[in-house]
Amino acid sequence: MNNAAVRYTIVLSMAAWFAAPSIAADDSAVKKDLFTVITLQGLPCGEVISVATKGGNDHIASCKDGNRYHVFVNAQGRVVVEKQ
pTM of the predicted model, to two decimals? Predict the structure, then answer.
């Protein structure tokens, strides 16, 4: 392997290494935000344990108590929470 290829591999490895914690932090923030939105709608949740992101503002939140909610922003710009 030539010198440029080695450097390129090292840079990619370092980028992946440093990106992983920020992805985990973002996931934690999304879970907290979705829990807040669900709770403010008066729906039971307990704690959001997993999130499936379908789009920028379109998520499926699974709660600790077994409930699942589709949380998204509609065409009018309002946040909507639908029980799944």
Answer: 0.69
